[in-house]
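PROTEIN DESIGN WORKSHEET
SECTION A - STRUCTURE
LENGTH: 431
TOKENS:
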């Protein structure tokens, strides 16, 4: 089946998906969990083949880590689906209700977007999360994973699609694209695909935006920062820096740059160096950092690099404002952290950091749809429209205006004898 046929099936299926009951969607999600466990050996074998091929092709370490879909990741994926089942159905929620006149009521009601095209990296667990989120939100989905995960993605897509159909989802609600040419073709399907979510480098996301008329929800690099303020608790700062960098390095919410206020640099940097090196982290530093600890030099390119590896750059800054200036210049708008005991300085930082997620005294690794209670995420949006930060169910919804009347005519509300509108808010669900 070619991409046009696959997309057409998704478009047709999206109409039925938008009206599925919460019971059917939750049953489908439960079926997916069961099917993933029942087909564990087939998934494991497919992933083993992908990993062996990737090693022969000398894929770098971060990609290999993302590609691996072991029992721990499968369990985490199933936990994410379980959390989705527990969430309320996002479709059909009344967002606002107003009485325009007696018997004339206007409702703003949440609705699915339609067909979501998602292009993602080598992580097979991302396919599971994205498919489950689209199902719960009543959307059909076209998925394109990295070619390095082709066998795992094929098996997962077949299992998940069948489990959904068995519960009552329409056939074709999930489609898998397998080649780069499929992606280029999908970008032209502006009458079929309603939203594209690309996950990859800035250059890749820009390529997608430049080659389609379809709205794009961009998720590019995760150049995340942790700023250690002059009023930071030293032990907390070190622990959060280590966790943010090393808890899992091959992800977009791991920090790549640590900023240290000059007033605490002499005290903090030696301890920070010891803690990071105990975790095998290589450190690059600015000139002021190098004057305090023995590390290699960090250059302009390092401030702009998403390492996704056990490497971190450190810069000493003269003030909170200089730290913010660095973040707003070099950051990707993903996640940035301040460590300080002073609430007013934390709020100052939060108000001025141009980023989707800004944290005070906690690890950047909390920037995640599952940890936010969103059930999972299709990605982290660094956009400033529609959805921002981890994109869960709410980010996959749009709304519809629904008006209910009883023969009301516009001509009665114009002219000299026009009836007035009351525009009275009403506490009432659309039904």
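SECTION B - SEQUENCE
RESIDUE ASSIGNMENT:
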């Amino acid at each position: 089946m070619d991409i046009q046929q696959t997309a057409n099936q998704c478009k047709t299926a999206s109409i039925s998906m938008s009206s599925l009951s919460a019971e059917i969607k939750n049953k489908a999600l439960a079926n997916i969990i069961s099917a993933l466990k029942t087909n564990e050996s087939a998934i494991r074998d497919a992933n083993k083949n992908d990993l062996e091929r990737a090693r022969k092709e000398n894929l770098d370490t971060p990609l290999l880590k993302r590609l691996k879909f072991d029992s721990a990741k499968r369990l985490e994926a199933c936990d994410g689906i379980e959390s989705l089942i527990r969430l309320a159905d996002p479709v059909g929620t009344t967002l606002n209700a107003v009485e325009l006149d007696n018997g004339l009521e206007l409702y703003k009601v949440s609705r699915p977007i339609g067909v979501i095209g998602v292009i993602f990296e080598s992580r097979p667990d991302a396919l599971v999360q994205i498919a489950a989120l689209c199902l719960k939100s009543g959307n059909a989905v076209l998925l394109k994973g990295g070619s390095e995960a082709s066998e795992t993605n094929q098996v997962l897509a077949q299992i998940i699609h069948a489990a959904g159909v068995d519960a009552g989802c329409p056939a074709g609600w999930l489609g898998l694209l397998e080649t780069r040419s499929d992606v280029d073709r999908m970008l032209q399907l502006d009458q079929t695909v309603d939203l594209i979510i690309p996950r990859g480098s800035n250059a890749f996301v820009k390529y997608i935006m430049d080659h389609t008329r379809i709205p794009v929800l961009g998720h590019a690099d995760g150049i995340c920062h942790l700023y250690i303020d002059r009023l930071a608790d030293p032990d907390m700062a070190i622990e959060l820096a280590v966790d943010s960098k090393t808890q899992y390095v091959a992800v977009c919410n791991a920090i790549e740059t640590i900023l240290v206020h000059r007033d605490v640099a002499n005290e903090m940097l030696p301890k920070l160096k010891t803690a990071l090196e105990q975790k095998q982290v290589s450190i690059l530093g600015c000139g002021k950092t190098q004057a305090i600890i023995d590390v290699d030099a960090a250059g302009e390119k390092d401030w702009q690099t998403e390492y996704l590896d056990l490497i971190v750059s450190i810069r000493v800054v003269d003030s909170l404002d200089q730290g913010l200036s660095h973040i707003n210049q070099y950051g990707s708008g993903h996640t940035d952290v301040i460590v300080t005991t002073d609430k007013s300085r934390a709020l100052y930082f939060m108000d001025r950091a141009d980023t989707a997620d800004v944290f005070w005294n906690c690890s950047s690794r909390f920037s995640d749809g599952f940890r936010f209670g969103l059930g999972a995420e299709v990605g982290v949006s660094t956009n400033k429209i529609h959805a921002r930060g981890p994109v869960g169910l709410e980010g996959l919804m749009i709304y519809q205006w629904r008006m209910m009347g009883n023969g009301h005519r516009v001509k009665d509300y114009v002219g000299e004898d026009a009836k007035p509108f009351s525009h009275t808010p009403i506490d009432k669900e659309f039904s």
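SECTION C - NOTES
Residues 234 and 268 are 7 Å apart (CA to CA).
Residues 3-219+391-397 form a domain with the Aldehyde Dehydrogenase; Chain A, domain 1 fold (CATH 3.40.605.10).
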